[in-house]
Amino acid sequence: MTLQEGTEMKRAGVVCTACALWLAALTLAGGCGRREPEAPSLIRAVNANDAEAVRAILASGVEPDSQLAPNGFTPLHLATAQAHREIMKILLEAGANPNGVRPDGGTPLHLIAGNGNYGLAKILIAHGADVNARTQTGHTPLAVAIDRGHKGVQDVLRQHGAVAEWGDMPLDRMLGLVSVGDVGGVERLLEGGYDLHKEGASGQRPLIQAARSEQPAVVKLLLEHGADPNRGYTDELTPLYYAFHAGSAEMVGILVEHGADVNVKGKDGMGLLGAAILAGRDDIAEILRKHGAEAFWDEAQGGPLFKAVLDGDTARLTALLEEGVSPNYVGPEGVRALHVAARQGDVRSVELLLEHGARLTADQRDGAQAIHVAAAAGHREVVELLLARGVDVNEPGADMKTPLNCAVDAGQEDMAEFLRGRGGQEYVPFLETADLPWADISSRAADEEGAAE
What we know:
This protein has three domains: 3-159, CATH 1.25.40.20; 198-261, CATH 1.25.40.20; 303-421, CATH 1.25.40.20. The longest helix is centred in the last third of the chain and has 14 residues, at 439-452. Helix content is 52%, strand content 0%. By secondary structure, it is an all-alpha fold. The chain has helices at 3-11, 17-27, 41-47, 51-59, 75-81, 85-93, 108-115, 118-126, 141-148, 151-159, 170-179, 183-191, 206-212, 216-224, 239-245, 249-257, 272-278, 282-290, 303-311, 314-322, 337-344, 347-355, 370-377, 380-388, 403-409, 413-421, 439-452. The chain starts with a helix and ends with a helix. It is built from 27 helices and no strands. It is elongated.
């Protein structure tokens, strides 16, 4: 169990960690020789699963709810947590409150919902347990059972009119499951009636989280259950934007097939199609075009500059630059006009941009510079020009990769040979000793030497 799961279970009223700690305290001495105070007699008998002792104590006049464990558990909570069926029946028949609460508001039925014993759930319900009791955080037993995936308990609870309520925590739970791609967990919450139209105080929504976390299976599941593909944090930051930012053509395809607006504009006025083109994501651009997307070059900030470079229109590019348009406008994903020209192998546009002050080593958001982009595309003339302007042949880019790394990764053998001839080297990530092929041999040799001594 992860720490996160444990925290959620505790908040949902299904963990009896405090109970376990208290049980241990009954037999272990405290620090410096001190012992914990002795538990009340009924509590001790329940903990020991001593049915006869429980009967005798109750027969002596002790009320079934009159004694509490140090952690606030009633005798019935304690018996339920440990699945002491016979003692549960004895306590209930003696008048124990089936809806007694712990300090967090959890009832015995919440405990059952967490451990999955539907037989014990039937016993509690038969004695009047409230199937829709809520913890302090607003969780009903059915919500707990859904969280834990206990189908048998869910069925029993639903047969008795239970509803699933997560109080103030359902979004947290859903976002956690979405983030890790837990399709089964998300399905359980949806089957329990989770409202996909609810959002957090700052606008968090499951579909956006799924797109940001690059979980295409969850994106599809949420859309099939009615999630709005066009509802985002703001008008332009829709799930489709986050899918593009994650670089997932698969998620983009799923979203547009379910009605996502392909012409949503960013704050700069540029649509996603333009952003995809500038970023060199031809796969995403193709999907968007098929669904009627426009680029809005004339309306977007920097749009005319980018369009001139994309079209190879050096006359228009020259006019724009001479009019004072900045060559360093930063577009989507940190892309600049110099990166676009380098990727296209447009030497003249690269020259024009540099002559008008384009930053030679400006990074894209991923860390790549113009020389890395050109090397990956195999454009030798552009690389030669950039080197002549002073760019280091081993300039580190995305993930510290050099231009030679980029050429090799892209299968540009001629470019790789050219760069090596200019002194290019490949960046090799540092390897821990344990990752090296000789590490195990060295360790065995040392062990053998030690044994010989």
